[in-house]
């Protein structure tokens, strides 16, 4: 249950009215948090779109609510969400968690709370880098709880990222791929294509990404195409790791959550 609500403290928030909400994690009963912004304003949509944005490995829950970073990319995301009258949520999900067991439990609880508080129309997971990776992991393991995914420069095999983020993985997964092979295997989203193929998925990756190589996206996209999945893939020929955040969020959101006509 939600145990406390208070105004969020952000250095440069995108808009006013952002709330930080604290809840008890079902994983270990610890106090966890997420940020929320209701973009419905006076529309009070009966079944609002909910977008949950998962931050990257070096960031925290305020990333998706912060102005000016990445050339103002999140300001543009805000404009799109506002035009759709969405509920926007940015979880902390245990920092550099790569959607380990604790983070997965936390996100599941956030989704439960969202449904408890709102008559949700569609629920979309989005994120970049670790956030894109985590969006695909959660959706591949619990596809019945989401309606679509936007993954920017995601990794689709966590074990392949261990050498670059070893401390984070050891904390979140309980050890190395050799020590905890089952944890890594069950979070290898490219191996859970049948579940992901049930959802519309938009992926953007820079061809010159040296942090998470583009082969991660190329592999899962090919597998989803072979499974007749609903996939939008945009590869940026000159793009580096940060480039996908500048993709058209409106185009991606329209693919995974078309506006009813």
Description:
This protein is α/β, with parallel strands linked by helices and 261 residues long. It has a single domain (2-256), classed as Alpha/Beta hydrolase fold, catalytic domain (Rossmann fold, 3-Layer(aba) Sandwich). It contains eight helices and nine strands. The chain has helices spanning 73-84, 101-117, 130-141, 166-173, 181-186, 193-196, 215-226, 249-256, and strands at 2-7, 19-24, 31-38, 49-54, 87-91, 122-128, 148-152, 200-206, 230-236. It has a nine-stranded mixed β-sheet, with helices on both faces. It is globular and about 50 Å long. Residues 1-5 have low confidence and may be disordered.
pLDDT < 50 runs, ≥5 residues = 1-5
Order of helices and strands: EEEEHEHEHEHHHEHEH
User: What is the CATH class name?
Assistant: Alpha Beta
**Largest sheet properties:** 9 strands, mixed
Which strand-content bin applies to the residues? 15-25%
Report strand order across the widest sheet: 1-2-3-5-4-6-7-8-9
What is the rounded Rg?
Answer: 17 Å
* Overall pLDDT level: 93
Q: Which structural class do the helices and strands define?
A: alpha/beta
Distance between the amino and carboxyl termini: 36 Å
Total number of β-strand segments? 9
CATH topology: Rossmann fold
Q: In DSSP terms, counting alpha (H) and pi (I) runs of 4 or more, how many helices?
A: 8
Range of helix content: 25-40%
* Number of self-contained structural domains: 1
CATH 2nd-level architecture: 3-Layer(aba) Sandwich
Q: What does the overall shape look like?
A: globular
CATH H-level homologous superfamily name: Alpha/Beta hydrolase fold, catalytic domain
